[in-house]
Amino acid sequence: MGCYRRQAVAFVRGEGAWLIDEQGRRYLDALSGIAVCSLGHAHPRVTRALREQAGLLLHTSNAFRIPPQELLAARLCELSSMERVFFCNSGTESVECALKIARRHAWSQGLRRPRIVVMRGAFHGRTLGSVSASGESAAGHELGPLLPGFTRVPYGDLEACKALPVAGVAAVLLEPIQGEGGVVPAPPGFLRGLRRLCDERGWLLMLDEVQTGLCRTGRWFACEHEAVRPDVLCLAKALGNGIPIGACLARGVAARALTPGRHGSTFGGNPLASRVALEVLAVMQEEDYSGRAERMGKRLVAALRGGPGTLPGVEAVRGRGLMLGVQLARAGTSLVAHALRHGLLLNVTAGRVVRLLPPLMINATEADEIVRRLHAALQDHLSREAA
Q1: What is the pLDDT of residues 176-211, one digit of tens each?
Q2: Cβ contacts of 345 within 8 Å, gap of 6 or more
Q3: Which CATH number covers residue 363?
Q4: Annotated catalytic sites, by residue?
Q5: 166 and 307: one domain?
Q6: CA pair distance 262, 208, nearest whole angstrom
């Protein structure tokens, strides 16, 4: 179906931070399959785990115990200080689980028409529930009527959240950094303020860390930058390094909201996906991927902000770790094709924000090369527009 605006290139092989197309040309990957391949392409340990598990057992269903899934749940809870995990196949499914948790919790509290507070400019996925929770531009009114029960407030506006009526609200859902919305970090103190507000009013704080989670911002989870622990935490993308898997983590009353028969997944957390995810987490910890993301992110930001003329047509650079947004002075959707011609993969979100999400294993030389190739692509982009 015509759902994608694909570029005219097909990749057949990957090596670390590099992809190789059908003609053998090499491209530096600054997108990671949209924050998925954090360990890079064809990582030997992930490949070995994948092969070993494929030779043992692929799938049984969640009607039975799955030992690799149990080990993965325990490891995620250890890393996040959460209590329970529901496994699914994607980020949007993780968000769907969070929405169900909020509604089930509200039902147990006697709320029959609960509302969930969401942020303008948000993006939570493609299912109808996730679309309904996303920002107005992402929702797409041609899909309407959207699901009811959502109250939108400006992203980062704590006073707007405080002005909401206490009664009827079940939870607050947001991204610590809005990805599709233009790589917009939450203002300092916003997450801490929301945590206090939710505690005072009995609301659940639910964080969508599908893109920011698992070392991308220089911490295991972006909420750690403000020492905030949510009630619900949504993960996916980097967890499988390309193997589909999502996880919805919860604690306290949120961890007990879903009971047998209230939710499920045929493939979620099957032996193959769980075994690969365990290896991904082990590599991230042993090779200090959070530290690498922080160091390489600082190097990239320093180069991107390196002085007048360093990057033509750029207004601002923002983000954390290796989740960076380069805001252009004008629309930049054609920049993707220009970057491809220079052997660089990136994308443009919110119309004019270059989103950089390179693998977390990039080295200093590769980080510098991203900036060099982006500079050349921007020059082509501006020259073509001027002509």
Answers
A1: 999 999 999 999 999 999 999 999 999 999 999 999
A2: 19, 27, 28, 29, 30, 31, 339
A3: 3.90.1150.10
A4: 123, 208, 237
A5: no
A6: 21
